[in-house]
Amino acid sequence: MQGNISSKEVCAACGFFSYSYFLTAFRQKYDISPGTLARSCQNAIQKTYK
């Protein structure tokens, strides 16, 4: 949520061995890519503290 960790690091931490499969599973579950979600969270945090 703070942007300190990459999607590939999240993938490994969640136990996925394939980054492409992680992206597919994430999109199917949440209907958004991990990168898009991270950017939207960053934008929300920045707006909160401006």
Report the strand count. Answer: 0
Unreliable segments of 5+ consecutive residues: none
Structural class: mainly alpha
Characterize the largest beta sheet: strand count, sense, and whether it forms a barrel.
none
Beta percentage is: under 5%
- Average pLDDT, all residues: 85
How many distinct domains? Answer: 1
Alpha carbon gap, first and last residue? 17 Å
User: What general outline do the C-alpha atoms trace?
Assistant: elongated
Helicity range? 55-70%
Tell me the layout of helices and strands.
Blueprint: H1 7-13, H2 19-30, H3 34-48
Report on this structure.
The chain has 50 residues and is mainly alpha-helical. The protein has helices spanning 7-13, 19-30, 34-48. It has one domain (7-48). Helices cover 68% and strands 0% of the residues.
Quick overview of this protein structure:
The chain is 68% helix and 0% strand.
Tags for this model:
3 helices; elongated; 50 residues; mainly alpha; 68% helix
